Amino acid sequence: MNKLLLLIITAAAFSCSSPEVQETAATDKEQNPLLVSLTSEQLASVGLETAKPEMNYMSTSIEATGMLDVPPQQAVSVMALFGGYVKSTDMLQGKQVKKGDVLCVMQDPSYIQLQQEYLDIKSQLEFLQADFARQKQLASEQVSSQKTFQQAKAQYESAKAKLNGIKAQLLMLNVPLNSLDAGTISPTVSIISPINGYITEMKINLGTYVQPQDLLFRIIDPEHLHAELQVFEKDIPYISKNQKVHIRLVNEQKVRTAHVYLINKEISAERTVRVHCHLDSEDQSLIPGTYLHAQVFNEAQQNYTLPESAVVSYNGRQYVFAATGNKSAYEMIAVNLLLTKDKKCAINPVDTSKRYVTQGAYDLLGKVNNKSDD
Fold this sequence. Notes:
Elements: H1 2-31, E1 35-37, H2 40-46, E2 49-51, E3 54-58, E4 61-69, E5 75-79, E6 84-88, E7 96-97, E8 102-107, H3 109-140, H4 146-172, H5 177-181, E9 188-192, E10 197-202, E11 209-210, E12 215-220, E13 226-232, E14 244-249, E15 256-263, E16 272-279, E17 291-297, E18 301-307, E19 312-314, E20 317-323, E21 329-341, E22 344-348, E23 356-359, H6 361-373
Antiparallel strand pairs: 1-21, 2-23, 3-18, 4-13, 4-17, 5-12, 6-8, 6-11, 7-10, 8-9, 10-12, 13-16, 14-15, 14-17, 15-16, 18-22, 19-20, 20-21, 21-22
């Protein structure tokens, strides 16, 4: 009876202790899931290489798209300020013009009428000026009434203002006043180019009747072309004035350099911000409206780096393997990947006293995956 009781107690004690030992073993495994050990044969087959992290200057770049554009003052719309018929023009789209060149010649009876009115008022003004001076003298001598003097003054001042108004209109029409003052009336007026540039639009032909404010020509001066970039809202905090920019037009492989000049303060409906960049080297052969791809470079900063082959991805995070005191054991450490450039990765945190696996990291990761499957 005593032997039977002892046997039952022993069996009960064994059944209670066995699960406890298994649970402890499992806990130890969970507490060290990132330590990878290799046999000597595995080490020889994998061919691991290790190195310490290096300090390097690295800069990030922001990708953007955009187009070439010109400042508003370099793009001019030439309009007809007065109605008239197009008598002659030798302009074509794409033709280069200089400031002061005649774009077209227009004619209309209203031009003649305006010049006649100018000459009439001018002749009247000479009489009114003389009368005003005479009445002023008579009023000072109390020979004439103040009322007569005031009437003469008002007539003179009114005619003078009207003449100046007509003169301003004639100047807008580019009528040569020297010839007109000499009595020569011109039946035509010339439309003059206000800037140097190229004609990009032409809305007229011979015989066209142009209404006031109608567009005749559009002229663009490409001397001060700039790059207008569309930068996503999330990237704007990393953009600052004078940053270096690389630009490549869609129709060429050449890389052009520029720098950030202005950053708009408004976000578009597409959640982008316009960034105005000046080209470092101007090229008048470029065409406004050309699409481009750009890289905006941030200022280079010092970072500890490892080769790109040292960083592996596992469960949505990045890891590196560090050598331990045991030559056959490597510790898998989670890191933050700051940036990657030229096959180098800037990471943190980093222990500069440790050596990290630079060749064979994915082989070690394969062993971690095999552990997880087990």
